[in-house]
Amino acid sequence: MNNNRLRIAIQKSGRLSKDCQDLLKQLGVKLNLREQRLIAHSTNMPIDVLRVRDDDIPGLVMDGVCDLGIVGENVLVEAQAERAGGTQNADVIKLSKLDFGYCRLALAWPQELGPQDKSWFEGKRIATTYPEILKQYLERENINASAVMLTGSVEVAPRAGLADAICDLVSTGATLEANGLMQGDTILESNACLIQNPNLNDSDKLALIDKLMPRLKGVRQAKE
Ligand code: ATP
Ligand code: ZN
């Protein structure tokens, strides 16, 4: 890999991919995106785009494998909490919040139980893909409950008897409803954001970022 080129990590396929590709296009970054390629080289700027799973993006940027990344705040906060207190770098510079990828991390439980307050969660098992964010919330709220880590299909966990409740991403609430779940407290609100490795000190790369940032603001204003 050529180290002189600015490396940007984006989600390969999923809810953020299309918006990330559109954003790069609006910033004037021309890309030749071939479906199966991990790396796409820009044809008009010294930029390489790495297309990976969104969960890998915070770590790639924290470790300086990529200079920039676009990822949901939910994934970023979870990754930072995971690394907290360890020896690996958990810092990134948040360059900008982006106007896509909005969702919220919320608690939910079987609808037939009806409305519940926080005390109901005492001693319960809560399925989630975000155990660290959930644990922080439970500590903050003084609730003694346990997190059951699931990387997918969290919404079926109560029905499958794997957990009493869930803590999952919601945008419209349709998935919760389809699974007979009632939505409770929001633990975290999230948008996609642009992050930078804090130790980046290559002056050419920093100059390129300085050149792109005003364009990003321009794109955001044009949309408002
Ligand atoms: P990957 O294969 O890259 O790991 P994924 O299945 O983890 O993909 P997606 O479902 O594509 O991820 O979601 C990517 C991000 O989109 C989420 O982390 C979140 O920031 C955002 N997002 C926006 N709305 C929603 C939603 N309703 N449900 C889940 N994620 C959402
Ligand atoms: Zn993911």
From TrEMBL:
Its main location: cytoplasm. Keywords: Amino-acid biosynthesis, ATP-binding, Cytoplasm, Glycosyltransferase, Histidine biosynthesis, Magnesium, Metal-binding, Nucleotide-binding, Transferase. Its EC number is 2.4.2.17. Feedback inhibited by histidine. It catalyses: 1-(5-phospho-beta-D-ribosyl)-ATP + diphosphate = 5-phospho-alpha-D-ribose 1-diphosphate + ATP. GO terms for molecular function: ATP binding; ATP phosphoribosyltransferase activity; magnesium ion binding. Residues 53-218 form the ATP phosphoribosyltransferase catalytic domain. Pathway: Amino-acid biosynthesis; L-histidine biosynthesis; L-histidine from 5-phospho-alpha-D-ribose 1-diphosphate: step 1/9. One of its GO terms (biological process) is L-histidine biosynthetic process. Catalyzes the condensation of ATP and 5-phosphoribose 1-diphosphate to form N'-(5'-phosphoribosyl)-ATP (PR-ATP). Has a crucial role in the pathway because the rate of histidine biosynthesis seems to be controlled primarily by regulation of HisG enzymatic activity. This is ATP phosphoribosyltransferase. The chain holds residues 1 to 224 of 298 of the full protein.
